[in-house]
């Protein structure tokens, strides 16, 4: 490698140097050499060392005797809630399937045929509307492009601002 290094240490690399975690690899030798020659990187390494020393001097609070049990209890409660939600979703899906099957049985063969015929007719009408719209709407939109854009912007911006104020902020979780 050349001695003219054109980079600076990342926080992770500076932390490894400060904690003495370099393993002697060529890459680590380059990092350590750079930290010795570069004032900014040497300051970063020293700031990590100072932070570690300050943290070592702090008194650690006593951990409550039931801390682990409390954390595990919350994890188990969350797991039970997820199981309940999955069971409820499955029950709702099963209920919808049973209701749909019951409706098909109640309608009978003739009722099913007429329902499918009505749906096919509706799809045909929708396809016809799409074909007409495909021919007419580009001309209308090109004629009204700027007024439509201005009107939608004038309506959307205040609406989005109002909605952003109504969205609840995420709650912070403490364990």
Notes on the structure:
The chain is mainly alpha-helical. It has two domains: 47 residues, no CATH class; 100 residues, no CATH class. It is built from five helices and no strands. Helix 1 crosses helix 3. The protein is extended.
Shape verdict? extended
Main β-sheet: number of strands, strand sense, barrel status? none
Structural class: mainly alpha
Number of helices: 5
Q: Can you tell me the residue ranges where pLDDT is under 50 for at least 5 consecutive residues?
A: none
The tally of strands reads 0
Distance between the termini: 48 Å
- In N-to-C order, the SSE pattern is HHHHH
Beta-strand residue fraction: under 5%
Mean pLDDT comes to 82
Integer count of domains: 2
The percent range for helix content is over 70%
Evaluate the radius of gyration: 33 Å
Summarize the structure.
Helix content is 79%, strand content 0%.
Give the topology, please.
Layout lengths: L10 H8 L7 H12 L1 H19 L9 H77 L1 H22 L9
Helix pairs in contact: 1-3, 2-3
Considering the chains and any ligands shown, give keywords for the structure.
175 residues; mainly alpha; 2 domains; 0% strand
């Amino acid at each position: 490698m050349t001695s003219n290094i054109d980079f600076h240490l990342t926080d992770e690399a500076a932390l490894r140097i400060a904690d003495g975690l370099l393993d002697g690899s060529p890459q680590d030798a380059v990092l350590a050499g750079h930290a010795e020659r570069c004032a900014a990187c040497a300051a970063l390494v020293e700031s990590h060392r100072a932070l570690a020393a300050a943290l070592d001097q702090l008194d650690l609070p006593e951990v409550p005797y039931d801390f682990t049990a409390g954390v595990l209890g919350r994890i188990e409660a969350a797991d039970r809630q997820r199981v309940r939600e999955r069971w409820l979703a499955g029950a709702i899906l099963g209920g919808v399937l049973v209701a749909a099957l019951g409706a098909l049985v109640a309608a009978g063969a003739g009722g099913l045929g007429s329902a499918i015929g009505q749906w096919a007719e509706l799809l045909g009408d929708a396809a016809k509307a799409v074909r007409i719209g495909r021919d007419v709407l580009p001309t209308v939109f090109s004629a009204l492009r700027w007024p439509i854009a201005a009107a939608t912007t004038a309506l959307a911006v205040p609406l989005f601002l109002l909605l952003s104020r109504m969205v609840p902020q995420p709650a912070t979780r403490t364990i």
